[in-house]
Amino acid sequence: MRIPEAADARRIGAVFVDGVLALGAAFLAFRLFHGPGRLFFEEISAWAGACFGFSFLNHVVLARIAGASIGKFALRTRVIYEKTGARPRVTRLFRRWLGGYLFIAIWILAAVFDSADEGPDDFCGVRLVRYRDLRAFAAAQGGYPTPAG
Fold first, then answer.
1. d(CA 88, CA 81)
2. In the chain, at which end, N or C, are there fewer CB atoms within 10 A of the end residue's CB?
3. What is the mean pLDDT of the chain?
């Protein structure tokens, strides 16, 4: 039995929620570190550290512990390791997180040169599924799969 993919609307919604939260963390850091006597580099470092730090905690740490980022929770989806249906391990989630930023950079360059394509399939063997489908899969298998990947 294969767990169906989550719809693109759920994926886009989760990306939007996670992105807004990361930018909110960056804005908060900017507000805290902005002011007279601060070097531009200090402000940018605080902004980038908050944005990427929150994103890392959300997409890697929280996804490993709970199976989803905040945006994925909000849209009732989970991340799974495609081969087993289990929660992916930290190394796989980290590669997916880092690869997502690389994809964004490549996609922007492709859009500038008018050759933008659709988004990539999950290249690390991690994919997004609806929570309801994951529960049905677990019930059919007699419980949740053990972590792998």
1. 5
2. N
3. 84
Residue 104 CB: number of other CB atoms within 10 A?
A: 11
* DSSP code string of 42-98: HHHHHHHHHHHHHHHIIIIIHHHHHSS-HHHHHTTEEEEETTTSSPPPHHHHHHHHH
Round to whole Å and give the CA distance between 139 and 112.
47
Closest Cα to residue 87, out of 67, 72, 70?
Answer: 67
* CA atoms in the 13 A half-sphere facing the CB of 74: 15
- 87-134 pLDDT per residue, tens: 999 999 999 999 888 877 777 777 777 655 555 556 678 888 898 888
- Residue 146: inside a domain, yes or no? no
Number of domains in the chain: 1
Query: What pTM value is reported for the model?
Result: 0.78
Residue 3 maps to a domain:
no
CA 125 – CA 1 distance, rounded (Å): 17
Instruction: Tell me, yes or no, whether 148 lies in a domain.
Output: no
